[in-house]
Design the sequence.
């Protein structure tokens, strides 16, 4: 009847919380270093007069890391929140012992795909409507 089988633990372990927290801290600190260089360059350029190269260089060193930091932080927060345990609590009528079904269309076929860009997570999504149901970390 149900074709979906989940391959993650139901509870978020303390190790996973620490891992996500450390990843978020690293992203913020690493990007902040480049943003500080860009801010100094922008401030120096604006203070010493209009210099197009300084504005472009400073802007790149400030806004590219800012973009990376914001998108990666959101992605990690989504991975940390949208787990199988969260799906069972949020949609109990669609997560039973036999498997899960889509909360949007009710279809029982859930597929899994590995996400790229070194996220080391899998996305569980509905095969009919394509709605993302939850994420699980890849097991090593």
Sequence:
């Amino acid at each position: 009847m149900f074709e979906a089988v989940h391959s993650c633990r139901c509870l978020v372990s303390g190790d996973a919380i620490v891992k996500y927290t450390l990843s978020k801290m690293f992203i913020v600190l690493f990007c902040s270093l480049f943003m500080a260089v860009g801010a100094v360059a922008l401030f120096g350029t604006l203070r010493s007069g209009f210099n197009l190269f300084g504005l472009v260089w400073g802007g790149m060193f400030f806004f590219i890391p800012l973009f990376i930091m914001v998108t990666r932080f959101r992605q990690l927060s989504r991975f940390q929140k949208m787990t199988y345990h969260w799906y069972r609590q949020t949609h109990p009528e669609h997560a039973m012992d036999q498997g899960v079904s889509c909360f949007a269309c009710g279809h029982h076929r859930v597929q899994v795909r590995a996400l790229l860009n070194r996220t080391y997570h899998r996305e569980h999504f509905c095969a009919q409507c394509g709605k993302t149901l939850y994420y699980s970390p890849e097991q090593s």
In short: Helices lie at 14-48, 52-81, 84-90. Residues 14-48 form the longest helix (35 residues). Confidence is low (pLDDT under 50) at residues 1-11. The longest strand covers residues 121-126.
